[in-house]
Structure formats: C-alpha cells, structure tokens
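Reviewers of the previous submission asked for a worked example of the structure-prediction workflow described in the proposal, so we include one complete record here. The input consisted solely of the amino acid sequence. No template or homolog information was supplied to the procedure at any stage.
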Amino acid sequence: MKYLKEFVLVFLILGGILSGLDLLFDDEKNLWNFFKQWIMNGAGSVLMWSGNSYLADALSIHFPWTKNSTTRLVVTILATLIYTFFAWLILVWLSSLLYSWTLTWDGLRHEIMNGSFFVTLIITVLISAFMHGRGFLLAWKETLVEAEQLKKEQMAAKYEALKNQVNPHFLFNNFNVLATLVHKDADLAERFIKQLANVYRYVLDSREKEVVPLEEELQQLEAYVFLMKIRFGESLQIEIDPALSQLEGINLAPLTLQMLVENALKHNEASKSNPLAIQVILEKEDYVVVRNKLQSKLNVGESTGVGLENISARYKFLSDKPVLTPPEPGFFTVKIPLIPA
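From that input alone, the workflow returned the following structure tokens.
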C-alpha cells in the first residue's frame, strides 16, 4: 500500500508536470493527446524514478557499499542496464497501445535506431547515478555513525574494566592475598604479581582495538582466573574448554570473557560448601559460551549494569550474529559470537 501510494503520486505529479511542458510546445493542443502524454510521462516517471529508487535500495541490502564497493559497482551497472532495457520495452508497448501502432521486431529495431532507447538509457543512467550516489552517501554516513558509536561502547568497556581493576575492594582483596602469599610461598607470590600486572597491561594495550585474537583474550582470562582462584580457592571452579585454544583466525571484542566472569563473581555466592561453577566453552565453532550456576547474592552492592549491555552493544557493530542469553533452569548463560579474522 505504501509503494502504491508513492507510485500514484509520482505518476500524477511528475507525469502531469512533464505533460504540461509538452503541451506548451505542442502546436495541436489536443486534450486527448495531453492525457496520452500524461500516461506515458507518468509511467516513465514511475519506472525510471521510483523503479531506480527501489533498485538502489534493494542492492544496498544485498550488496552494501561498505562491504565490497567494487562488487557493488559492477552489480549496479549490470542491474541498471538490464532494468532499463525492460522498462523501455514496457514504455514502447504502452506507446503502441496508446498511439495504435503494431509492436513488431522491426518496430523495436526502428525505435532503437532512432535513438529512443538511448535517450531512455541516458535518462536512466542520470537518475540511477543520483539514486546510487545517494545510497553510497547514506551508507558512508551510517558507517561513520556506527564507528563513532562502537568507539563510544569500546571506551565504556575499557572504563568499566579499568574501574573494576582499581576498585578499592579489588585492590584490597588482591593485596591482602599477596601479603599472605609473600610469607607462605614466595614463588607463588611472584606469579601472582606477574598475572596481576598482565591483567592491567591488557586493559591498557587493548584500549584502541575493536577486536583482538581469541588467543590473546584467553590469555587475559587465564591471568584473571589465576588471581581469582588464589583468592577464592576451592570456592570457585572455572572450566575453560581446551578446544577454544585450538581455534585459529578468530577474534573477540576485547575484555568480553573477563567482564562475563567478573559479572558471575559479582552477582553470585561462592563458598566452600556451595562453590561457584563457571564454564567457558565452545559451541559449534560459532559461539563461545560463558555459563555459571545461579546462586544469587542477597546483597550485590552497587551495579552499573554496563557489562552485558555493553558487550551486546559492541557486537551489534562487530558481528551479524547477536549476543544470546538463552534461559536455562539453574544457570545464567551468555553466548558470544566468534568473529572470523
């Protein structure tokens, strides 16, 4: 209905304007000729103007300028030529009906030779260039907006991760663990310091990156898990699927896995009698899944809600697949799409 309304408006308005101009230069100002010209001009306007507009929109969906501009250009040229030829055939057929002449192959050949087809082609190319140029500019503008939004989400993620690392409770707990280790196990204390430094270094090193190799993200997660295992001991059980480390040419948004594990620890109880189990596993080489048992804390404390919301927002720009949170009785599950390099 929307398209029909637009077609009718283009037919009436553009067809009427062009027919009025034709009438000014017509020696025989005949009302019937005026209406026939209106039909021809209206049909031509719908086919050439509206038709090219929808052709440009359709191509933008299946062959976006931002993905492969060369492919889009070639497809645009071919589609425009093919569409123009069939649109011209429709207009020739309509002309034969209105002006009572027989449509034959000789007639079509004559129309081509007298320049009718080439005039139509030139007009179509001009209109098409405008429509596809408009599509290119809109796609370019949208890409800039998305890039800026992604940058904003990345900054929010880095800020949230860094804020968690300099949180007084985080620092106090880790320094308290370190103070205990120094007297009990100097080697383990040294490892603890190195892994703590790795956690901070990764946050700083990845601040300008949209994606990082899965291998780097797993190394960061292992450094963070090492700190948490020392702190929580048997109260925390974290399983990282070895199959993840075997994947090659795969990226993730930086700090994704650490933020999800942080959220699990923040919102769930972890004790010797009721240890918190967290799994980081591969699913069909399409998703990395972070799943934890639901054993919610009574008092979570201040929560910004940035974590999962930020991850989902970033992946809208990085992947065609969404971040999933499927319901599972007794568990909280997040599925993160893997990004091919």
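The beta strands are 212-213, 236-240, 250-252, 276-283, 287-293, 331-337, 339-340. We consider this example representative of the routine output the project will generate in years two and three.
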